[in-house]
Specification:
Blueprint lengths: L7 E8 H14 L2 E7 L5 E6 L10 H13 L2 E8 L3
Helix pairs in contact: 1-2
């Protein structure tokens, strides 16, 4: 028997300036497995796999990349895969 549940997904459509703030909020929530950033047409710009060991300084390059991407995009879709516990 396989007791693993498929990840639950949520989508958020945000203006470019609010993307970094939302990504930080999602990472700090702790139950996120992966974050996918894409445009409204569905083109994937970035996938961020998250693990339990990813904290602090390791997140700085991710935040910098998300911030740069959000600066050039007017609207982005954030797809979040959450771990069901």
């Amino acid at each position: 028997m396989n007791d693993l549940k498929p990840p639950r997904t949520e989508e958020f459509k945000l203006e470019g300036g609010k993307v970094l703030e939302k990504v930080k909020e999602l990472i700090h929530a702790g139950n996120v497995r992966r974050i996918i950033l894409k445009n409204e047409e569905g083109k994937v710009y970035m996938e961020i796999p998250l693990t339990w060991g990813l904290v602090g300084v390791a997140l700085l390059p991710i935040f910098a990349a998300v911030g740069a991407l959000a600066a050039v995009a007017t609207r982005m879709v954030i797809v979040v895969e959450k771990v069901e516990e």
